[in-house]
Write a structure and sequence with these properties.
Chain lengths: ~375, ~600
C-alpha cells in the first residue's frame, strides 16, 4: 500500500501576517490596513500558536515555514526570528528547511532583508507584479519598476533562492507587451517565477468596478488563452518551465512549501484566517483561524488558541481536494492515491486529449492545462 | 334569511393597480366585517402569488353587513373578480351572479384596456354601474378629465362618480351609500322552487369541494337533497355558510343571497360553473342557461429539472388541477427533457401562476418549454388534428393546410408611443382593424395571430411603451396561413423542446434570432458547438459557439482549497440545472430565453 500523501508530501507551517500598508484593488486575501500594530503582542501570539500546534502534532518533522500575508515584510526581523526559533523548537526541522517570506519591493522593506536572513529566512518571494510604472499604479502598488529591480538585486544578493510574482492579462495589456515584459523578467535570472493571470475577484475594488461595468480593457478569453500559451513556451525555452499552473522554476528550485499544498500534504496554518490541513489520529482535518485580526488576537490571548473551526474531511472530499490541487502540478497525481475516481470519465477525458495516457499517474496534457477547471468539472460534477 | 330589498350584490371592475383590492379591503374594514387585528392587505387574495403580484386570480367573495344612513342594515355581497385577460371568462361568469358593479378608475391614469374589457362584461350582464374615481389624494389626479373619458370611451354617465382614496380611506362611506342607493336589489320569489346558480367551486383540504352559489328563487337549507341540473349529480348538503370572508354557518339562504355549500363532492371537475342547483324533489324545471366551460388556449411542456422529481411533479399537477378545471395536463415524453407534462392554460399569466405555484408550493424546479397555441392541421385524407405540441407535427407531405388561432387585440396607448405599438403589431403579422383617439390616447384594434402574442408580446408592449399601454384580447377564430415547423439543432442533434411553429416568411428571422440567443445562453464547452435552425432538412440559420480556451484558477494555495471546493459545489448545483444533449449541457432557462425576441 502506498504511503498516504500526508506522510509522503512533507509538513509545512504557514504563518499569516494580515497587515498591509494599503489594500490592492485585485487582492482578495485576508489583509487589513492598520494605523498601528502592537508588534510585541502579535509576536507573542504567533509564537504561542506555534507551540500550541507543535505540542499537538508532537514535534513532527518540518519541511518548510512560509510567511504570507498581507505583507509579512512589514514585520520586524525580530518577530520573524522569534517565530522561526519557536518553530525549530516546537517541531523537528529538516536539514533542508525552507523558510520563505513574501516581501514587497519597497526600499524600506528591502532594508530588512539582511535581518530576515539572520533570522533564518532562506527564500523570498517578491510581489513585483509588473515591470511597468503605469501598470503598477493601475494595480494599486506603492512601488515603481525601478524600485522593484533594485529590490530584486538586494534579494538576490542576500538569499540563495528568490522568486517574484507578475500579473498578466492586465487592463489594456497586449500580447506583445506581455511577451516583452516576460522576456525582461526571465532576464533577471531568478530560478523561480509566479506568473498569474489577473483574476477579478468578487469583494475586491476591481470586482466592484467590474460588476458596475467600469473595469475596461480586460483581456478577452481568447487573448488570455494566448498569453497563457506564450507564457508556457517562453518559460520553458528559458529553462524555467511550469511545474504548476502559475509557477515556473528551474528543476530543483520549486517552492517546497507550496508543493505540500498541491501534493495534499499536511500543513498547519497560524495567524488570522489561516487554513490548515493536518492529520490527527489518522483522520485528516481542516482547520481555520479567526479571520479578523482583533478577534484572532483576543482568541489566542483569552482561549489560548486562534483556531475557530476544525472539521474532519470525508473521503470523497479528500479525493476532490487531491484532484483540485494535484492536477495543477505538471507531475500530476499518483493513481494509487485516487481510489474512488470515476474511471469512465477519466477514459473519456483521455480519449479527448485532456489527460495524458499515463499508466500510473493522472496528469493533464498541455492542451488541458489552461482548461483545468473544465477538466475538473468533467471529473467531479 | 334576509329580505331581498336589504341585499345588494356587486362586483368591482378595474384595471390592474387601479385599486380594486385596496377598495375591497377598505369596505371590509370600515364595516367591521373583519376585526382590526385580523386585517391585512389584499385580504381577499388568499394566494401568496396574488398578493405578491398585486393581482386577483380566483374570484373571491365576502358578505358585508352595513348599517346604512337610512337606519336599515343591508347585506352587501362583493364578488371580487380577477382583472387579467387570461381570466376574462371567469369574470364574465361571476358577473352573472350580481346585479351591479363599481367601476374603479385611477384618477391619475384614466381608462385602460382591462377597464374596457371588464366594464363591457358588466354592461353585457345588465349591471347597474357606479363609477368610482380612486387615488384622488395624489397630486396628478384629474377627476374632470377622467370623468369625461369614462363618458367618451365607455359611454356611461360619470357626473355622479364617487371620488375616493382607497389608500387613505377618503370617500369610502360614500361608496357604501352608493352601493345601497344606486345599485338595484335582487329580485326573486321565495315561494318558487329552488333555483341557484353555481358561481364557482374550489377545493379545500378539510372540507372537500366548496361550491359558491347565488340563490335566484326559493330557499336552500342545510341537509337539503339537491340536484345539479346539467350533470344530474345528486347530493345532500353538509354545510351551508356565508363568507365574511371566513366561513360562518347559516341555516338557510333565500333569494338574492350568496353563500357556499359543501356536499361531499370529491373533485372540482365534478362541478360545472353555471350549473343550476335545485331540490332533488319538487325542483325547478327551468334551468339557467349555463356557461361554456373555459378552454385552455396556451400549451407548454413542464419538465422537472431533476428527473427524479417526476412523480412529485405529477402529484403537484394533480393537486393543482383539483382546484382549477381550466388547467389541463397530459404526460409527455421528450427525447431532450425526459418525462414531463404537456399542460394547457387560459393564457400566459395563468401559465406563469401555475408554474410559480409548482416551483414554490411544491419545491420542484421546472423546465418550461416554448408556449404553443392549438393549430388545426387538415390532412390530405380529410382528417383534422388539433396540434398543440410542435413535436407532434405530422409529415408535411400528408398535410393539406394548417390553420392558426387569431385574436382581436385592443390596445390603449398614449400618442407618443403609437408608432412603436403599430410597428410591434405589424412585426407580429397583425392586421389593423381600427384606430381611434380618446383624448391624448389612441385605441388600436388589431387582428393578430395568437402564436405571435402568447410568448412575449405583452412584455414587448410594456417595454416599447414604458408601461403606459394597456392590452386586452379575445379569440376570434382560425385562419389558414403558411406555417412551418422550425427545428433547432445543437451540436448536430435536434432539440425537440426548442421546436416551434413559425410563419414561413418569419422563419429565417426567428431562426437567426434564436441561434444567436442560444449562442449566448449556452456556456462554452471544451469543443466547438454548431447551433442551427432548420426547416425540414434545410438549415436556415447557423452559429458556432467557439470552444472554451481558458478556464483555470490562477492562484490556488493552502487557504484556497476550501474556497475552491465551494466553487465546485456551486458548479455541481449549476450542472443540475442543465440538460444534457449528447455532450452539450444546456441551462434550463435557455429553453424559455431562446424564444424571447428583441423586436
Amino acid at each position: 500500500m502506498a504511503a498516504e500523501p500526508w506522510q509522503a508530501a512533507g509538513f509545512g507551517l504557514y504563518v499569516h501576517w494580515p497587515f498591509c500598508q494599503s489594500k490592492c484593488p485585485y487582492c482578495d486575501f485576508n489583509s487589513h490596513v492598520a494605523a498601528a500594530v502592537d508588534e510585541t503582542a502579535w509576536r507573542q501570539a504567533l509564537v504561542s500558536e506555534v507551540y500550541r500546534v507543535g505540542a499537538e502534532l508532537g514535534r513532527r518533522p518540518l519541511t518548510s515555514i512560509f510567511f504570507g500575508g498581507g505583507t509579512p515584510s512589514l514585520m520586524d526581523a525580530a518577530t520573524v526570528g522569534a517565530i522561526v526559533d519557536a518553530a525549530t523548537e516546537a517541531f523537528s526541522p529538516s536539514n533542508a528547511l525552507e523558510t520563505t517570506l513574501e516581501a514587497n519591493p519597497s526600499s524600506v522593506e528591502t532594508g530588512r532583508f539582511l535581518g530576515y536572513r539572520t533570522a533564518g529566512v532562506n527564500r523570498v518571494s517578491l510581489g513585483v507584479q509588473a515591470l511597468d510604472d503605469t501598470a503598477l499604479r493601475a494595480l494599486g502598488r506603492l512601488h515603481t519598476a525601478a524600485e522593484a529591480r533594485a529590490a530584486l538585486d538586494i534579494a538576490m544578493a542576500n538569499f540563495d533562492r528568490v522568486s517574484f510574482d507578475l500579473i498578466y492579462a492586465r487592463q489594456h495589456q497586449s500580447l506583445s507587451a506581455w511577451e516583452a515584459e516576460l522576456a525582461e523578467a526571465l532576464a533577471v535570472g531568478t530560478d523561480h517565477l509566479s506568473l498569474y493571470q489577473l483574476t477579478i475577484e468578487p469583494g475586491t475594488a476591481f470586482g466592484e468596478r467590474f460588476a458596475r461595468g467600469r473595469l475596461r480593457g480586460l483581456a478577452s478569453d481568447d487573448l488570455g488563452a494566448e498569453m497563457f500559451e506564450v507564457t508556457q513556451a517562453m518559460t520553458e525555452a528559458a529553462g524555467r518551465p511550469a511545474y504548476e499552473t502559475s509557477n515556473h522554476a528551474r528543476s530543483g528550485a520549486e517552492c517546497m512549501h507550496n508543493l505540500i499544498y498541491w501534493r495534499s500534504g499536511d500543513y498547519a496554518g497560524i495567524g488570522p484566517g489561516a487554513h490548515g490541513r493536518i492529520t490527527v489520529g489518522g483522520q485528516r482535518v481542516a482547520t481555520e483561524a479567526a479571520r479578523a485580526p482583533g478577534a484572532w488576537l483576543d482568541a489566542v490571548r483569552t482561549r489560548g488558541s486562534g483556531e475557530v473551526l476544525r472539521e474532519g474531511i470525508p473521503a470523497t472530499e479528500q479525493l476532490e481536494e487531491r484532484l483540485m490541487m494535484g492536477l495543477r502540478l505538471v507531475e500530476g497525481i499518483g493513481l494509487d492515491q485516487l481510489e474512488g475516481l470515476d474511471q469512465d470519465r477519466v477514459s473519456q477525458l483521455r480519449a479527448d486529449g485532456w489527460i495524458e495516457p499515463d499508466k500510473d499517474r493522472l496528469r493533464v496534457t498541455p492542451a488541458g492545462r489552461p482548461l483545468l477547471n473544465a477538466v475538473l468539472r468533467e471529473l467531479l460534477t | 334569511m334576509t329580505d331581498p330589498r336589504r341585499i345588494r350584490n356587486f362586483s368591482i371592475v378595474a384595471h390592474i393597480d387601479h385599486g380594486k383590492s385596496t377598495l375591497a379591503d377598505r369596505l371590509i374594514q370600515l364595516t367591521g366585517t373583519v376585526a382590526a387585528r385580523d386585517m391585512k392587505e389584499q385580504l381577499l387574495d388568499a394566494m401568496d402569488i396574488e398578493r405578491e403580484r398585486g393581482i386577483t386570480i380566483k374570484a373571491n367573495t365576502v358578505r358585508i353587513e352595513y348599517p346604512a344612513g337610512d337606519g336599515e342594515t343591508y347585506i352587501l355581497n362583493l364578488i371580487d373578480t380577477p382583472g387579467h385577460v387570461d381570466f376574462a371568462y371567469e369574470v364574465s361568469r361571476s358577473m352573472q351572479a350580481v346585479e351591479g358593479s363599481l367601476l374603479v378608475v385611477d384618477a391619475t391614469q384614466g381608462v385602460e384596456a382591462q377597464t374596457l374589457a371588464n366594464v363591457y362584461q358588466a354592461i353585457d350582464a345588465d349591471h347597474e354601474i357606479v363609477p368610482v374615481l380612486n387615488k384622488i389624494d395624489l397630486p396628478a389626479a384629474d377627476c374632470d378629465r377622467v370623468s369625461e373619458q369614462i363618458e367618451d370611451v365607455i359611454g356611461i354617465d360619470a357626473t355622479d362618480a364617487v371620488q375616493i382614496s382607497a389608500k387613505t380611506g377618503l370617500g369610502i362611506p360614500d361608496v357604501l351609500e352608493a352601493i345601497v342607493h344606486r345599485l338595484p336589489a335582487p329580485s326573486g320569489d321565495r315561494t318558487a322552487p329552488l333555483k341557484a346558480m353555481l358561481v364557482d367551486s374550489w377545493y379545500d383540504p378539510y372540507l372537500g369541494v366548496v361550491v359558491l352559489i347565488r340563490v335566484i328563487d326559493g330557499v336552500i337549507r342545510k341537509g337539503d337533497r339537491i340536484t345539479m341540473m346539467q350533470t344530474g349529480a345528486k347530493y345532500g348538503i353538509d354545510k351551508l355558510a356565508v363568507l365574511r370572508p371566513e366561513m360562518r354557518d347559516i341555516p338557510e339562504l333565500g333569494p338574492g343571497e350568496i353563500g357556499i355549500l359543501t356536499a361531499s363532492i370529491k373533485q372540482v371537475r365534478d362541478t360545472r360553473v353555471g350549473d343550476t342547483i335545485t331540490h332533488e324533489k319538487g325542483g325547478t324545471t327551468d334551468p339557467l342557461p349555463g356557461f361554456k366551460p373555459s378552454q385552455p388556449v396556451v400549451f407548454c411542456g413542464l419538465f422537472p429539472v431533476d428527473s427524479a422529481e417526476f412523480e412529485d411533479l405529477r402529484d403537484a399537477i394533480e393537486k393543482l388541477a383539483l382546484n382549477d378545471a381550466s388547467f389541463t395536463s397530459e404526460m409527455e415524453t421528450s427525447a431532450a427533457l425526459g418525462f414531463g407534462f404537456r399542460c394547457g392554460f387560459l393564457g400566459l399569466l395563468h401559465l406563469e401562476v401555475i408554474r410559480d405555484r409548482i416551483e414554490r408550493e411544491y419545491g420542484i424546479d421546472l423546465i418550461t418549454t416554448a408556449p404553443s397555441v392549438i393549430y388545426h392541421v387538415y390532412m390530405r385524407d380529410g382528417a383534422k388534428i388539433d396540434l398543440h405540441n410542435p413535436a407532434d407535427m405530422p409529415d408535411l407531405t400528408h398535410v393539406d393546410r394548417l390553420e392558426e388561432p387569431r385574436i382581436k387585440a385592443t390596445i390603449l396607448v398614449p400618442d407618443e408611443y403609437l408608432g412603436d405599438v403599430l410597428k410591434l403589431c405589424q412585426d407580429r403579422r397583425g392586421e389593423q382593424l381600427d384606430l381611434t383617439y380618446a383624448g391624448s390616447r389612441a385605441m388600436v384594434v388589431y387582428d393578430l395571430p395568437l402564436n405571435e402574442v402568447v410568448f412575449d408580446f405583452y412584455d414587448r408592449l410594456k417595454s416599447v411603451t414604458k408601461g403606459y399601454a394597456s392590452f386586452d384580447y379575445q379569440m376570434t377564430g382560425y385562419r389558414a396561413d403558411n406555417l412551418v415547423k422550425m427545428q433547432v439543432l445543437v451540436n448536430e442533434e435536434p432539440v425537440d423542446a426548442l421546436a416551434m411553429m413559425v410563419h414561413r416568411d418569419r422563419a429565417e428571422m426567428r431562426g437567426r434570432a434564436m441561434v444567436e440567443k442560444l449562442k449566448d445562453l449556452i456556456p462554452r464547452h471544451m469543443f466547438k458547438i454548431p447551433i442551427q435552425a432548420a426547416i425540414g432538412g434545410k438549415v436556415i440559420a447557423r452559429e458556432t459557439l467557439a470552444a472554451l480556451r481558458k478556464d483555470v484558477t490562477a492562484k490556488c494555495y493552502g487557504g484556497d482549497a476550501t474556497r475552491k471546493k465551494k466553487l465546485l459545489e456551486k458548479q455541481k448545483a449549476g450542472k443540475k440545472k442543465m440538460r444534457q444533449f449528447g455532450k452539450v449541457d444546456i441551462p434550463q432557462e435557455a429553453f424559455i430565453n431562446a424564444l424571447k425576441m428583441d423586436g
